[in-house]
Structure formats: structure tokens, C-alpha cells
Amino acid sequence: MNYGKNFADVYSKHLIHFSIQVAPRIFKFLSSKDTKNEILDLCCGTGQLAYYFLAKGYHVTGIDFSEDMLYHAKKLNKPFIETKKAEFYCNDARYFSLNKKYPNIVSTYDALNHLEDDQSLQQCFQQVFHHLEEDGTFIFDLNTRLGLSKGGTFIREDEEIFSIMQSMSEPSRNKAFTRYYGFVKDDSSHVYYKYDEVVYNTIYKMEKVKEYLYDTGFISVKFAHVNNLLKMVEEPEKEERVFIIATK
Fold first, then answer.
1. Which of 11, 53, 95, 239 could, after both became Cys, cross-link 58 (CB 3.0–4.6 A)?
2. Does residue 34 sit in helix, strand or coil?
3. How would you list the strands of the sheet with 228-232, edge to edge?
4. What pLDDT is attached to residue 187?
5. What pairs with residue 8 in β-bridges?
6. How many angstroms separate the CA atoms of 39 and 228, rounded?
7. From residue 27, how far is each of 116, 142, 178 by CA, in Å?
8. 122: number of CA atoms within 13 Å, CB side?
């Protein structure tokens, strides 16, 4: 999704918890494999996962569809860009084209749920497969139907931000929506500004996701626990979120 400037600012400060939590888990999984220290971070957002891997000595390429999100990713990772350990590009997850193949491609925080439909997800899988080295690994997480069916309203209020997050779903259309809105304090002027963004999610059947990956050419597809990628999940629809690990 092409998020706007105000929401990208809020995201870079207040919605980075998931990337910070899962980066060490992905690192642990990759460390258990004989793989190169390099990743393509697909839908990299504001660059927190990239930063973690760069600090661990990885080379990272980041792609995101939002220039405003990439502004923060480039700012956060500026020292690594200057030493040519990192590069960031504005591109579409369905159609991206880089003249390179990668040993590992990752996509986190249910970014692929934000694609429009199953066809878009398949297009993304095809591009990922094309950009992976032989024996390469594709790691991404998805919210399941169970996870996206839980609506509700969450309010946060402190000195820095007043925010409301409202979630709802339309299971008959395989769609879910989350609206983020409120006011946040600007760091320099200390003036509060408004933000308002709707995030759209597609509900995928996990068996279909697996089928699409095999149809694309992946030789192994496994579902893993969100807290431990080394722990496999046999019934992903019973989880609210799962990681998928696909091997070329």
C-alpha cells in the first residue's frame, strides 16, 4: 500500500514493534541454515528489520511501494547506505524487477495481506521466485482468517500520541479493514498533527497459499509458529498469524 507522509511518520515511531520482535526470530532461523548473510526485505516499511540485519553484518536490499515509508528507512539506515551495505528502492511487490538474485527474501508484518487479491499474491510469488537463488528461502507472515476476523477498537493516549485503531472484517468478501487515526506530536515543533489511514487486508485460505507457492515452483512449503520459526504449525487456520517458509 502507498501510505501517506503523516501515517509513515506515525508508523516509524509507534508501529514498529512487530518488526523489532520478529527480526531476532528470523535471524535465529537463518543462522540455523548454511546461507549467505544477505536478504531482500520485501515491503520493508520504515526499515527496522533491515536495521537489525545490517547491524548483524548482513547486506540488505529493501523494497517498498511508499516513498514516504522509504524516507524513514533510508534515514534510519543512512550509515549502511553510505558504506554500500544497504540500498532501498520504491517498487511494487507484484512487479518488482532487480538485476540480481538473493539467498533469502523476507516480508513481515502481514505485508502480503495488503495485496488486493489472490491473483496479486500469485504475481508476488512469481517475482520472489525469480529473484531467489537456487535453494534460496522465502520467509513471510500472514494473518489468517481467524486473526483478521477479530474486530475491535483500541485507544492509546499519552504525551506523544492520541490514537484510535478500529478493525472490522467482511468474511463473505474475504476482506478486513483497519483504520488508524488520531493526533501525534511533531518532534521539532511540538505541535500535534492529524493522521488518518485505512489499511486493507485480504483474507487468504492457507491451503491456497501453500498451493500457489508449489505452483510457482517452490519445492518445500512449511507453516511456522510466529514466536519460533523452528517450530512447525500443522493447522495454520487455528492460528491468528503464521510464518510461511518456502524453499526454492
1. 53
2. coil
3. 86-90, 59-64, 38-42, 102-107, 132-143, 241-247, 220-225, 228-232
4. 82
5. none
6. 19
7. 29, 18, 29
8. 9
Average pLDDT for residues 118-124, to the nearest whole number? 98
Q: How far apart are CA 41 and CA 55, in angstroms?
A: 15
CA distance 185 to 57: 34
Task: State the Cα torsion 230-232-236-241 to the nearest 10°.
Answer: -10
For 243, the grid coordinates are 510464518
Give SS3 for 91: coil
- Burial of residue 174 (number of CB atoms within 10 Å: 0-12, 13-18, 19+): middle
Give the cell for residue 246. Answer: 518456502
Of 16, 42, 216, 210, the closest CA to residue 115 belongs to 42
Read off the C-alpha cell for 167. 478493525
Q: What pairing do the DSSP bridges indicate for beta strands 132-143 and 102-107?
A: parallel
pLDDT tens readout for residues 174-189: 999 999 999 999 888 8
